[in-house]
Amino acid sequence: MAYVGAAAAIAALGTTIYQGEEQKRQAKKSRRLQEQAQNRQFGAALAEQQLASERERRQRARKPNVAAMLADIQAQSGGLESNLLTGPGGIEKDKLRLGTNEALGG
Length: 106
Hints:
This protein is mostly helical. The chain has one domain (about 1-80). Helices cover about 70% and strands about 0% of the residues. The protein contains two helices and no strands. It is rod-shaped. The termini are far apart.
């Protein structure tokens, strides 16, 4: 009987050791899979950040240069007082007078 009890104890010990090793392998596998998932997420986040930076750079390049536009208008027409209604020369100063030598209403 003692041999049977010892054999059962050894078998139980072997099973316990096997289960412990199996748990270690599963934990190691879980950690590896978790690390891979985190690396994929980091890579995706980095790619998204780069894409957003590229979109922002392209958007900035599309914005009109208003200062250059105004400078071109001044150079072409002689000033900002011209518009589509008055033309490039603007309005002549003597046409602003209402029959007197003074400016409008003055």
